[in-house]
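INTERNAL AUDIT FORM
Audit reference: QA-55
Scope: verify that the stored structure record matches its stored sequence.
Auditor: D.O.
Record contents follow.
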Amino acid sequence: MLTDLAVRKAVARDKPYKLSDGGGLYLLVTKAGQRCWRVDYRFGEKRATAALGVYPTVSLAEARAKRLEIKKQIADGMNPSAKRKIDKITGPLANVNSFQAVAEEWLDKARREGRAEVTLGKLKWLLEFAHPIIGARKIGEIKAPELLAVLRAVEKRGHYETARRLRSTCGQVFRYAIATGRADRDISADLRGAITVPKVTHRAAITSPLEAGVLLRAIDAYSGYPVTHAALRLAPHVFVRPGELRHAEWTEFDLTKNVWTIPAEKTKMRVAHRVPLTRQALTILEELREISGNRRYLFPAQGKRDRPMCENTINLALRRMGFDSKTMTAHGFRAMASTLLNEQGHWNPDAIERQLGHAETDDVRRAYARGEHWEERLAMMKSWSDYLDQLRSGAKILQGSFRKPPSAAISG
């Protein structure tokens, strides 16, 4: 076995030579006089050598400790060479290991993946609740009760849905930390059932034909900002999500093929969504082109050329028309279309769901329901726009369960 004195006195010779310490560990002295620690080992049927550092930066005691670590890795069935490669990749990340640092990395990744800025803003806002309590903690050392304390602080304000979403978001951060070698498990999974389950509240919507007619006539009479008026008029005919409507860009519209293609990065399901444009929708768009056709967005914010209208613009317009938040919302146009189309009993429910941009949640059904029902959706949207016109005109609606085309259910 080597001694510290023998290592210190090792000097260069004409050729490189080794001083053995036993167990595969030795000191390699180069022709230039550099003293390098090496250890020979066997993993499986292959012999290999690992470099452990240079003396005196790595002492004899430290070299022996590294030898023992390699022997333990082999005993555990781990290839020391593969372990070093992994450490080389994850090492720089391991030094940036606070919850807040990992969360910011995860947000950057989500941004590179094309997540909408609105979504990124909401995720960042949620994580701000966690940073004062666990932001500076090493993410791999955070325990479930610490995360629960974060969620309890949100719950005390009565924000149960926010707490639920925060647990889910933190879970994604922990899983990212696992993938990058800075945590071993997702502790948010331990908190299932530990926080208050929020009561489900559905967004307000008008879903009766008579009330829908009142709403459509009120929209026609709206006297506010023309761009907002156009958005209100178009919304019932396309019934897309409010964020998809207000972020609509002219480049997404093919007015020769009469289709609006919403890019995948703008949709909730991250799948491109096609919307047939009916005669009524095209008329609204032609009128809107006179106002915003030379701009990026169909519905630019008032006084701001290159920004879309605000998130609450349509809701505020509905309030101005006398529809309170318990009666109708911007999202309610989707529920109105879904309810009335399904009640007509004429359309395939899968076609309705596809037009709403919903994803099939049942794995078996999703495997088989790959078609877009495009031809049926074209007919359905044309019929729907005609139906809206008749509702607007105050046509008498025949109630009942029937399976006839919508046009047969309306008398003048």
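Auditor finding: record pair retrieved intact. The longest helix spans residues 160-179.
Action required: none
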